[in-house]
Amino acid sequence: MDIVLGLQWGDEGKGKFIDLISQNYDIVARFNGGANAGHSIERYGKRITLKSLPSGIFMKGVQNVIGTGMVLDPVNFKKEVLNLRSFDETIQVEKHVSISKKAHLVLPTHQLMDVFMEENSSYTAIGTTRNGIGQAYANKILRQNLRVGDILSPDFTDRIIHILERDYNQLLSYGQILPSLEKLCEDFFDAVEFLKRFEFIEAEIFLNNSLSEGKTMLAEGAQATLLDIDHGTYPYVTSSTTLAAGACSGLGISPKKVGEIYGVAKAYCTRVGNGIFPTEIFNDLGEEIRQKGNEFGSNTGRPRRIGWLDLPALKYAVMINGVTQLVLTKADVLSGFESVAVCTHYEIQNQQISVMHGLFIDDEVQPVLQWMKGWDEDISNYDDASSLPEQLKNYLSFLEKELKIPVSYLSTGPGREQIIKMD
Ligand code: IMP
Asked: In a structure prediction context, what are the per-residue pLDDT tens digits for the chain, which is 423 residues long?
């Protein structure tokens, strides 16, 4: 099993890379998160954002699995499938996607509670995607949630109604103005019926058997390392395990079976939502990169915060994931800048820190930037590593030396063909 995951705060371009390499695999299995993800893929000159569907969906012959570590919102999922169908009616989604019976359900009240907590000043506002992700995972950990497999049990409707009524009444007691419970239930049960068109599987058995039969498999991570619930910049993180280890627990695969671990990083950093961001750029340059790189949330439309490439954060992400190959995206966005910066280390209370670690607060961290000569050439049509501008080659060698892993792929634009395999 190979793994693809994000090394920064998400939106690194994992979807495009997975879409590209999925041709080498029999199975693509998503291991964490839910509709909070926004994996953008360009096809036929149009762009689509996948949320819960694995990014192998466009590759004929690939079986896509919604893994146990995910949380699935039937209402959102139905919309996503219908949207995909109108984007490309040739894809037989039901045939090529199966869903783990142990994946947890996201309920409409989870979403309402997420919004309530974001908007109520007595809670810490995380800047979530408001999809109810944290609520679903919280209820999973509390052992109060229902799973996809429960849909098949005869008392499913009663159990769901009980939970929805209870949580709805709790929200009402907080003075929330809510859509009617009848409408929420109607939409939810309608979407559950739709979900039944998909095969619910014992994902662990299916995946392990497939590997034993010699099939190849790619584990797809959503969000990214610095948003990991344990090792990210807590509390401004998502609620799942986004790391390589999460691929094993989220899919039920032994770590012994892991092969390549592809870490995807942008040539600069972005972040949506709140939380520490040591290399954030606050001046016009940040705005220029935002516009050039179209850095607006694919899921929420929010403008993304922009920062320089952060080596202490990347070293940390490479270390805790055991990344074997780096996939660098959006280097084309930096074309045309006279010089580009990389943060080589932080200064915190007069100490030099070269690998990010857990608990520090924004004010304490001084990023130390190294400026490098930029490249003028528009690289978006380059398809050969040897012809890349010298300054970009220097930049890549610098990263390889610092991170001690090869840059294996360089993405040069949003299009499917705009990627260079480096050798
Ligand atoms: P949640 O996952 O919706 O609970 O949001 C928690 C944090 O993770 C927020 O800062 C979100 O902006 C961030 N987040 C969640 N999913 C993504 C993603 O796919 N890309 C970037 N940030 C994300």
From this structure: 999 999 999 999 999 999 999 999 999 999 999 999 988 888 888 889 999 999 999 999 999 999 999 999 999 999 999 999 999 999 999 999 999 999 999 999 999 999 999 999 999 999 999 999 999 999 999 999 999 999 999 999 999 999 999 999 999 999 999 999 999 999 999 999 999 999 999 999 999 999 999 999 999 999 999 999 999 999 999 999 999 999 999 999 999 999 999 999 999 999 998 999 999 999 999 999 999 999 998 777 889 999 999 999 999 999 999 999 999 999 999 999 999 999 999 999 889 999 998 666 666 889 999 999 999 999 988 989 999 999 999 999 999 999 999 999 999 998 888 999 998
CATH level 3 topology of 2-101+198-257: Adenylosuccinate Synthetase; Chain A, domain 1 (3.40.440)
Domain 104-195 adopts which CATH fold? Adenylosuccinate Synthetase, subunit A; domain 2 (1.10.300)
Residue 223, ligand 1, Cβ within 6 A: yes
Give CATH for domain 267-421.
3.90.170.10
CA 149/CA 68 separation, integer angstroms: 11
Kindly give the distance from the C-alpha atom of residue 237 to the centroid of ligand 1, in angstroms, as a whole number: 7
| 227 CB within 6 A, ligand 1 | yes
- Is any atom of ligand 1 closer than 6 Å to the C-beta of 236? yes
- Alpha helices (H) in 198-344, listed in sequence order: 203-212, 244-251, 284-292, 311-321
Q: Which atom of ligand 1 is the closest one to the Cα of 300? A: 12
- Cα 51 to averaged position of ligand 1 atoms, centre (Å): 12
Does the beta carbon of 318 sit less than 6 angstroms from any atom of ligand 1?
A: no
- Atom 2 of ligand 1, residue of closest alpha carbon: 238
Both tokens assigned to 257:
């079976």
Does 278 contact ligand 1 (Cβ within 6 A)? no
Would you say the pTM of this structure is higher than 0.85? Answer: yes
Phi, psi of 372 (to 5 degrees): -125, 155
Which residues belong to CATH 3.40.440.10 in the chain?
2-101+198-257
Instruction: Tell how far the Cα of 304 is from the centroid of ligand 1, in angstroms.
Output: 11
Question: Which residues are known to be catalytic?
Answer: 11, 39
